[in-house]
Amino acid sequence: MAKNDAALVLFSGGQDSAICLAWALRCFDRVETIGFDYGQRHVIELNVRQDFLAQLRATLPALADTLGKDYVVDMSGFGALAQCSLTEEREIVFNETGLPDTFVPGRNLMFLTAAAALGYRRDLNHLVGGMCETDYSGYPDCRQNTMDAMQQALNLGMEADFVIETPLMQIDKAQSWAMAHTLGGDALIDLILEHTHTCYLGQRDTRHNWGYGCATCPACELRAKGWTAWKAQA
Is the pTM of this model over 0.85? Predict the structure, then answer.
């Protein structure tokens, strides 16, 4: 895609959204970011996302030259509605539907609606998210058909022309590490390792070769597995 338009990136502070931000910076003339305090179990991602943005500007100024404003939206009451292991201190288990209870029902739908409201006002018609249906836990709001339906609903409801961009949708974690390297080389890989956070439990006291985390939750295991596979191929 050539640089030809403006984008709003749903940037959580995690690995996937960081890669999507780098992708958007390669593709669009103007890029802004949005994050959400939705009553999550910990605020580590919200904290490291500011570090990542600052380090991105300092370390990769040519890549970050189209990076604009950042917004953090207070949706802290949503956690009380969702009530899962990402919004409460409890063990991660699988529920009766077969999904891990790290699934936050309605979260991506809510995020995209809020992002579209901001995008409408800021004239940011591309909404970029890290949803992926290849290497994930089966979350229904990460599937391509959900994104297609959401795009249609937003455009009908706002009489707008939004495009939901999901550059990671059809690739696995190893391929996403490879994408990051293509987009920003070793410098971007180092930023992701040091200044993003994926661990569901919010642990940041141990630095592994793939970054920080508990190394046992599903998110850490997926990140570590992808890193190992990518390094084996590199």
Answer: yes
